[in-house]
Design brief:
By secondary structure, the chain is α+β, with helices and mostly antiparallel strands. The chain is built from 2 helices and 6 strands.
Length: 109
């Protein structure tokens, strides 16, 4: 599969020497970048931490000449993606998803 042709990039947010948030991303096709695996410690949710991570994803996508970022967030994480400018592009689904329900989201950068 072509998604394994591109290297992944990893980010973390640290507060007081503790990792409080992480995300990763990688190019999946010409012009497309995937944000994958965002996690924010519960005490830091509903703030700006996820926004910081998504800004780094935006920068990396642009560095890799991508014009779109996509993801498959869990229902509970969708608000963070929407705040970061993603648009929901599918209904929620649980088939073949370990932590569903999920949906597809897309953002133009």
């Amino acid at each position: 599969m072509s998604i394994y042709s591109y290297p992944a990039t990893f980010w973390k947010v640290v507060d007081n020497h503790k990792i409080i948030a992480v995300n990763s991303g990688f190019k999946t096709a010409e012009g497309y970048y995937r944000s994958r695996g965002i996690w924010v410690q519960e005490a830091y949710r509903n703030g700006q931490v996820s926004t910081l991570l998504f800004l780094e994803v935006d920068k990396q996508a642009q560095t890799e000449n991508c014009h779109y970022i996509w993801s498959i967030p869990r229902k509970a994480a969708l608000p963070a993606y929407l705040r970061a400018g993603f648009k929901q592009t599918s209904d929620f689904f649980s088939d073949n998803m370990e932590f569903g329900p999920n949906c597809y989201v897309l953002k133009e950068v």
